[in-house]
Amino acid sequence: MKDVILKIENLDKSFGITHANKNISLELRRGEVRGLAGENGSGKSTLLSQIAGIYASDSGTMYKDRKPYSPKSPIDANTHKIAMIVQELGLVGNLPASVNIFLGKTGQYTRGGMISLKKLYGEAQKVLERWELPPMNFKRKASAMNVEQRKMIELVRALSADPDILILDEVTQSLSHDNREVIYKLIQKFKEEGRSVILISHDLEETLKITDTISILRDGELIDTVVSSQISEDDLKRKMVGRELNEEYYRVDMEEQYEDEVILSLKDISSATGVSNVSVEVHKGEIMAFCGLSDSGIHDIGQLAYGLMKPTKGEVYLHPDGMRITSPAEALKHRMAYVPKDRDGEALLMGSHIMNNTVLPSTEGLAGRLGYLSTAKMKALAEEARELFKIKCTGVMQNMGALSGGNKQKVNLGRWMVKDLQVMIVDCPTRGVDVGVKAYIYQCLKEAKRKGIAILMITDELSEAIGMADHIVVMKNGSVEKKIGRSVGFREEEIIEVMV
Questions:
Q1: Is 170 left (phi over 0), alpha (psi -120 to 50) or beta?
Q2: Residue 325 DSSP code
């Protein structure tokens, strides 16, 4: 017991009729990195939220350093040296990064009712230096940051509590290769200092690599805890889902396969954000993947191609008629889809229900005789998408916030795929979804490819690009560094070498 830093006994949590966690018991030791594995909806995030003081438990007991531990809030958990980075983004958009880092704890930096931003910047900088993190702009507002930058600020916020237990819920899936390496080094530093980490990652290869042990949850119950070095990825998948996963995952062919016709062209595109003279052509039935580090500009490419970001130079064309795409309205009208990386912030109406979210890209075809939206047509389309994409829900009127990450993404992707498309732009399409939903999304993308849809995929997952793309475009410092074809043979080491 002297090495046990956290002990959980019979923890239980329900949300209405949903029994999220059922009598979970486990022990975490000092210097241990514990992974949690399970399908979306298995209760992983709920368990972490109870440990971090976000949710109160219905029953059960926790002990921190052999003392009863029952946090009333995340700040209370911080005082007990437990900090968590949540799966969804958790910053206040109109506040500077430094204020977000110390939100709820700014009293010691306040004098005469005024917060000293200079002191906040200084304290935030100390956190960077203490944990050897890369430079960050603490004066910038959170709303002006992309997903990755915000996630790194959340990391600093968690570390500002000087935690001896750090909880990471789907953090690496938001990060590109260079910032993932930052997380890996941080985890190693925690181990060396006798601190502990609990993490969720749907990248099972990553989970096996960076954890010591893995607790497997299914339907809210703890099924097993295994030693990471003693279990294979396939065996871990079987334990997670309770069955053999026989679905084909990535593509099995090793050749570029698409038609001669060019559907989407980016001609000498540059942007105020640093993209410089990017020119690519995406063919009918082609999957073109963009990869790069955090400052490479890959996520800007999707916004430029869909007209969400105005280029400072260059044009985006939709063929065969050479139609210029200068706005999202034009892109939508000409059968283009865009699935952004920030699902909750930029794509879905989280305060609304599944039906409203499903019909958003299709409202023009859902009007009744007087021009008003037909509720019957809306519900029929939503039901079609729910059935087609196997969305787990109580019905199409269920609120989006009640869905798991995987089912949110099925709504996000499925509402486009019920349309007659010619171009799909997907930015990190499998971020925050489990292995079963990933396999399903890849099947959907392969089906779209077979239909002749041109797919521009932006991804932080090299395995995803290697498994799915006809061509991989590697960007560095805003420019195209190299384009690699599937028939040449994708090698992760070669791609990383070009990226860095």
A1: left
A2: -
- Orientation angle between helical segments 375-388 and 405-417, nearest 10 degrees: 120
Q: Is the peptide bond before 320 cis (omega within 30 degrees of 0)?
A: yes
The first and second tokens of residue 212, run together, are: 């010591």
Q: Cβ(11)–Cβ(62) under 8 Å?
A: yes
Helix and strand numbers (H, E) in the chain are: 16, 22
Residue 36 is predicted with a pLDDT of 96
Averaged pLDDT for residues 56-78: 95
Per the DSSP assignment, residues forming a β-bridge with 499 are: none
Pair 128, 101: CB distance under 8 Å: no
Residues 226-242, mean pLDDT to the nearest whole number: 91
Q: State the DSSP H helix or E strand holding residue 411, giving kind and residue range, or none if neither.
A: helix 405-417
Q: pLDDT tens, 286-308? A: 999 999 998 899 999 999 999 99
Q: Which residues contact 466 (CB under 8 A, 6 or more apart)?
A: 250, 472, 490, 492, 495
DSSP 268-279: EEE-TTS--SEE
- Over residues 238-295, the pLDDT tens digits come to 888 876 666 578 999 999 999 999 999 999 999 999 999 999 999 999 999 999 998 8
Q: What single letter denotes the amino acid at residue 446?
A: K
- The Cα–Cα gap between 190 and 213 comes to 15
State the pTM of this model: 0.82
What mean pLDDT do residues 378-401 have?
A: 91
Residue indicated by tokens 């959340």:
154
Region 118-135: mean pLDDT is 93
Confidence of residue 400 (pLDDT cuts 50, 70, 90): very high
CA-to-CA distance for 226 and 239, rounded, in angstroms?
10
Report the alpha-carbon distance of residue 246 to residue 435 in Å, rounded: 12
The three-class DSSP label of residue 384 is: helix
Q: Is 38 left (phi over 0), alpha (psi -120 to 50) or beta?
A: left
Q: How far is CA 356 from CA 276, 373, 408, in A?
A: 38, 11, 13
**Residue carrying structure tokens 């699935």:** 339
Amino acid type, 356 = N
What does the alpha-carbon distance between residue 464 and residue 442 come to, in Å, rounded to a whole number? Answer: 9
Sign of CA dihedral 192, 197, 203, 209: positive
Q: 478 near 275, Cβ under 8 Å?
A: yes
Picking from 350, 339, 314, 365, the residue whose alpha carbon sits closest to that of residue 424 is 339
